[in-house]
C-alpha cells in the first residue's frame, strides 16, 4: 500500500516516532492525517488533525474511530517503557501490567475499533510498531520486552486473519530510536525519520515485516542459528 492519498491514523503521534510518521505521511502526499494523542492541547502541526485518544480507554478509542471513519492506514505506535532492576525485581509484576495495558492491549483495542472501517476500504493497511527487544535479552527492560513480544505474536495472528480480506499488516522491528522514550538510555539510537522512511517504503513494497536498523536485521538473522541472538546476542548488540 502506498501512503500517497491514504488517510492515516497514528496513535502516540504528538512526538517522537509517531510525529515522524505523521510528517513523513504528509511529505508523501497522504490525503489526511490524524494524530492520536492523550492530550491535544498545544499541538500544532500543519496538515495534521489532532485527535484525543487514550489506548487504555475503550470509550476514547471508540470516539476516535467514529471521528476518523475515513482511515485507510492505521499505525499502532503508542507505547511506554520503564527500566527495572531485572526479571525478578519487586516491581516486575506492577510494571508488566502497566506495559501490557498500553503496548499490547492498546494495540488490540485500537485494531478492534478500526477493523470495520478498514474492511470497507479498497486498499487498507495496519502498521504495528514492535521492537528488537523481543529477541534481545535486556533484563532491565523485562516488562517492556514481554509486552512487545505479545504484540509481535498478535501482529502475526492478525496478519494471517486479515490476509484473505486484503488488509496488509506490517510489523516494524527496530532497536532504540532517538526519541523522548529512550532519552535516559545511553546506547546507539536510530533516527526516527530514517525508521519511518524505511517503514513506509516496506509498506509500499507489500512487505510483512521491516527491520529498520542494522542491529535488528543482524539479530533477526540469528534466529535459525544453533545459538540464536536471544540466548547469546551478537557482538556489538
From TrEMBL:
**Gene Ontology MF: a single term:** oxidoreductase activity
Q: Which GO terms describe its cellular component?
A: cytosol
Pfam families documented for this protein: adh_short
Is Oxidoreductase there in the keyword field?
yes
Keywords of this entry: Oxidoreductase
Task: Indicate whether Acetylation appears among the record's keywords.
Answer: no
Top-rank lineage group of the source organism? Bacteria
The UniProt similarity line reads: Belongs to the short-chain dehydrogenases/reductases (SDR) family.
Name recorded for this polypeptide: SDR family NAD(P)-dependent oxidoreductase
Q: Which organism is it from?
A: Bradyrhizobium septentrionale
Amino acid at each position: 500500500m502506498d501512503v500517497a492519498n491514504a488517510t492515516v491514523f497514528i496513535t502516540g503521534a504528538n512526538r517522537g516516532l509517531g510525529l515522524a510518521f505523521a510528517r513523513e505521511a504528509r511529505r508523501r502526499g497522504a490525503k489526511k492525517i490524524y494524530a492520536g494523542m492523550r492530550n491535544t492541547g498545544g499541538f500544532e502541526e500543519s496538515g495534521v488533525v489532532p485527535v484525543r485518544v487514550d489506548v487504555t480507554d475503550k470509550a476514547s478509542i471508540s470516539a476516535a474511530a467514529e471521528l476518523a471513519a475515513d482511515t485507510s492506514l492505521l499505525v499502532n505506535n503508542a507505547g511506554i517503557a520503564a527500566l527495572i532492576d531485572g526479571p525478578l525485581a519487586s516491581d516486575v509484576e506492577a510494571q508488566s501490567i502497566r506495559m501490557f495495558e498500553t503496548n499490547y492491549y492498546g494495540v488490540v483495542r485500537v485494531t478492534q475499533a478500526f477493523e470495520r472501517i478498514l474492511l470497507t476500504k479498497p486498499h487498507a493497511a495496519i502498521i504495528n510498531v514492535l521492537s528488537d527487544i523481543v529477541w534481545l535479552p535486556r533484563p532491565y527492560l523485562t516488562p517492556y520486552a514481554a509486552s512487545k513480544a505479545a504484540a509481535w505474536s498478535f501482529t502475526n495472528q492478525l496478519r494471517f486473519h486479515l490476509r484473505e480480506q486484503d488488509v496488509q499488516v506490517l510489523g516494524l522491528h527496530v532497536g532504540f530510536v532517538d526519541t523522548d522514550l529512550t532519552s535516559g538510555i545511553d546506547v546507539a539510537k536510530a533516527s526516527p525519520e530514517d525508521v519511518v522512511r524505511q517503514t513506509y517504503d516496506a509498506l509500499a513494497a507489500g512487505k510483512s515485516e521491516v527491520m529498520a536498523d542494522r542491529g535488528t536485521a543482524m539479530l533477526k538473522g540469528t534466529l535459525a542459528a544453533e545459538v540464536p541472538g536471544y540466548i547469546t546476542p551478537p557482538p556489538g548488540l
